[in-house]
Amino acid sequence: MIDFPFNDLDRLEQEEDDLPSIPPFPSIFKPKVTPNEREEFIFDLAHHKVNQLSNAGVFAMAVDQMCSILKNESEERLCEIAPAILIKKDKRKHEKAKGF
Asked: Which of 2, 41, 45, 82 could form a disulfide with 86 if both were Cys (CB 3.0 to 4.6 A apart)?
């Protein structure tokens, strides 16, 4: 029988135990990053990512952000800040068109 490295399970387990431990989520930050440093890094990363977007991508992102902000508002508040053109009239007040 050919001796493959995988035949000796005890040896494999021992080699596995001898490996250095790797953190489950390696961090690019120093162990003690301050909240200000983290905020600055996030801003720089966001700036870099937005610079790579097309105009359509920037517009889509802005609309998505505005939707996130507005979804927490009440219906009354939404009607207050909406332009008149977006307020839908009650269709029941209109008369039906009469035929010939």
From this structure: 82
The 10 Å Cβ neighbour count of residue 61 is: 13
Contacts of 53 (CB under 8 A, 6+ apart): 61
More confident residue, 12 or 93: 12
* Predicted structure pTM score: 0.47
Give the distance, in angstroms, between the CA of residue 77 and the centroid of all CA atoms in the same chain. Answer: 26
Q: Are 62 and 54 in contact (CB under 8 A)?
A: no
Instruction: Provide the token pair at 5.
Output: 């490295």
Indicate the helix (H) or strand (E) that contains 51: helix 35-51
Is residue 3 domain-resident? no
- Give the chain's domain count: 1
